[in-house]
Write a structure and sequence with these properties.
Chain lengths: 254, 380
Amino acid sequence: MNILVLIKQTFDTEEKIILQKGIINEDGVNFIINPYDEFAIEEAIKLRDLHGGEVTVITIGPERAENALRTALAMGADKAIIIDGEDQDLDEYSIAKVLAAVVKGREFDLILSGNLGVDYGSGQVGPRLAEELNIAQVTTITYMEINGETAIIERDAEGDKELVEVSLPVLVTTQQGLNEPRYPSLPGIMKAKKKPIERLKIDDLDFDDDIKAKTTVMETYFPPKKNAGRILNGDLKDQVTEIANLLHSEAKVL
Amino acid sequence: MNFLLSEEHKMMQKMVRDFALNECEPTAAQRDEEETFDMEIWHKMADLGLCGIPWPEEYGGAGADYLSYVIAVEELSRVDASVGVTLSAHTSLAGWPVYKFGTEQQKQKYLRAMAEGRSMGAYCLTESGSGSDAGGMKTKAVLEGDEWVLNGSKIFITNGGYADTYIVFAQTNSDLKHKGITAFIVDRSFPGFSVGKKEKKLGIRSSSTTEVIMENCRVPKDNLLGKVGEGFMIAMMTLDGGRNGIASQALGIAQGSFDKAVAYAKERVQFGKPISSLQAIQFKLADMATKIEASRLLTYQAAWREDQGISYGLQSAMSKLFAGDTAMEVAIEAVQVFGGYGYTKDYPVERYMRDAKITQIYEGTNEIQRLVIGGYLLKD
């Protein structure tokens, strides 16, 4: 069984975000594998160990993103592909197009990716790629079992559980609760050095459509600081009047 | 010259850091209080390949370097110095002499089992009457047919009771004093071998420290380590590397105390502002951080020298001396930053302070380190 895993390198969740002239400063920042993608890697390794085949991890990003691939290889993935983003302005639409171009022509039964990235949190790339490839997709999965050509999947449906049966190939996005990602073992880290990483450039890929981003980021800013709550006192009728006034003048929602 | 860790070292550092935080920290205070050794942690370290970091794959090791090993001991000790010393004694004091002086057969049998974490190692040099003066040991070994018969007892044995493989030093010819000492690999299953009293300690309380007793303990001739009379040399050379393991442990204790002190200083508000804004605290933190960085450079350098095949005895003695003193000083200052709260068991810094003390004592007291350093400096 051939499994592809889409991963992204993100800020360590412990890092403080520093904005400089509207751009997020990356200096001295510690990068990690997007935590939701770790579930995808772990599930892929487990399925490979059970059914055989190969696990390929794929990322788009700058050179530093190669470290995320090495960690995935140290955990037990077999090979990796990095697509150099070349500082191009890529949004979810373009990233899905790029990934589709990379994946088309490769054999796969299953594609896994994190349910969302902890940085921008769009949760779009997985579903968009499934559409591009015209294959089935199941999002926010918390359990999966493969029986021959079908997968039995449990997914998190807004707090409820939904049981899905789907035929392969399928793209799934992974949710917390699916598994406990392993630590990369020291022998795994040593072996990762020797595992192959394929390096691709966007220019080397063939596209049917324009991959230019469909969205533009107008401004990046911090959410306003949350003030302490206020408890209104006095006559109930006065309180109602006051809250209505506040909603109008301060919160500006009325 | 390059002071940056490689990507592999960083990856390994992160792995051990995550492991220590997730698997050791939650129970560290309780294990300290109850003096319990947790075999579960040991088994998990074995699964991650941490029990034989610097040994080649052919002996079951991870095939990594000594720098990786000291980083691992540092990261473990940053959270729990008891776990740190368990790995340090196992690797430096039991694995190393078998790797350096063992026969191929001994390596396949004992080093492999230790590297894979199927067995734990311990080092038995100290006796009740001989500490710094190791040459004055009383434990005797006499050859009877195909077996050596050992009699005597050893104290303060790290990993005692949990270890399976004990490197034991005994007199085979007392007329020759330290030149009559011989090293043996003793399996805990050998007849006449037993584990004695367990020490109740000030610090590193969840590591096991016991007496081991040999009463007509019969050791097969094949388990002689090195040659007859080489024991003292093996013991001292083993300690050369072991010291850097303790330096790493001390470094971890210092870094762990410092991290806690910084976090607390930023949080604790007095006189209307966090105490970290007070110069009295900033000066303390600056001194702590500077000494920690110097300890780290000494420790990593000694490991790097061993990896390069360059002499490292002098550097190990220096790293152990400086990192040990730094750990003690930094841990005391960390308690000071915490004030009254630091003196209670509600916060971990008192544990770090108790744990730090031993790093100035074992594997050669810091007085002995100065003696060793002096010896190197004045050697003709």
